[in-house]
Amino acid sequence: MSRTTGFEEFLKKPSCLKSFRRFLQKEFSQENLDFWLAVEMYKNCTFKKRDKLTVVIYKTYIHEDAPNQVNLDADAMNETLQRLLQPDDTTFDVAQKNIFELMERDPFRRYMADKTNCMKSNSFGAVGKLSAAKMEAHDWLKMWETNNIRFHQNSVHPHLVKHEKNVFSVNSRIYLPLCGKTLDMNYLSEKGHDVVGCEFSEIAILDFFKEHSIAFTCKTVNSSGHEFDIYEATDIKITIYKGDFFALGSQVTGKFDGIWDRGGFVAINPSQHGDYAKVIKDVLKPNGKYLLNSFRFPDPNWKGPPHSISQEDMENTFGSHFKITNLETLEPNKNFHNVEVSNFLLTFP
Ligand SMILES: C[S@@+](CC[C@H](N)C(=O)[O-])C[C@H]1O[C@@H](n2cnc3c(N)ncnc32)[C@H](O)[C@@H]1O
């Protein structure tokens, strides 16, 4: 791969990737970038996942009737078809190189001419696009950029495992507000649910798909002046909307049978509680169930996030629309500020 244009380095930067994808979208040639990314994932996936991914990539990008067929030259196509007879981690290498060179030769050059230099663009550029452009957006994005994500857990949340079966019906459509890259999404998907997350950090979303070798497609939708990138897994039911939770309503996502909220409600500013409740009310089906993992810190000087949520906060925020059931409150955690963790179940009365 040529190093002179900087295209290879460019593709490693999420903010550049995003900007380049938009450029390609306008030209209806985004499938080239998606294919290139899918092959990156393929090369790093486990042996166990490879068979499945081989078929997905072939059917999505290579086959003559593929919905997102890429424009391979004859040599690259023949070589790829040969390699598909005995797939290994190099199956799509020639095709990927072909598409890389195609993008580098043409759209990338025009893109760079257009943008002067994407590499130098402000890494918080996305913030300005968020409707509210709140300070919290800036702070969260910075945390992802500096990998300061101590809230992220490398295992499925034990309280989800404990309550999932009793709270959510089988094959539910479940929403995870402010989802980060939580493994709870994989868990719920493996349980047969249709999983939808919302997150405004592209780093979080791309990390999620990459870390689990999940192939995906991405498209952009506009709703009432807000833009959302929809990242949709191609072979399992996980979709993540990239954008501001407060601007994402049921007119875009549809309604949900269930909501699992770990690190969402407790993460937002207390001044946003009312707006948060409005979104929850909007996206939950009439018989839907909202499972909320919440914290109460006894120290009155505690400054979140996570913020301390009192029983009174719960009533004030959700009481007029929901029936609130406290499923459990755990013993205060002596190792962490005596925090009391509760799991609430909210339903419409
Ligand atoms: C405390 S983390 C929790 C992440 C995830 N639920 C978990 O359990 O790991 C909060 C996440 O919400 C995202 N976020 C904060 N405000 C948001 C908003 N208004 N819209 C979309 N995402 C937001 C942040 O980028 C961050 O990844």
TrEMBL record:
Signal peptide: none annotated. CDD domains: AdoMet_MTases. Keywords: Methyltransferase, S-adenosyl-L-methionine, Transferase. Pfam families: RGS (PF00615), TPMT (PF05724). InterPro entries: RGS, RGS_sf, RGS_subdomain_2, SAM-dependent_MTases_sf, TPMT. The keyword Methyltransferase applies. Transmembrane segments: none annotated. SMART domains: RGS. Residues 6-112 form the RGS domain. It comes from the Eukaryota. PROSITE patterns: RGS, SAM_MT_TPMT. SUPFAM superfamilies: Regulator of G-protein signaling, RGS (SSF48097), S-adenosyl-L-methionine-dependent methyltransferases (SSF53335). The keyword Transferase applies. This is RGS domain-containing protein. The lineage of its organism: Eukaryota, Metazoa, Chordata, Tunicata, Ascidiacea.
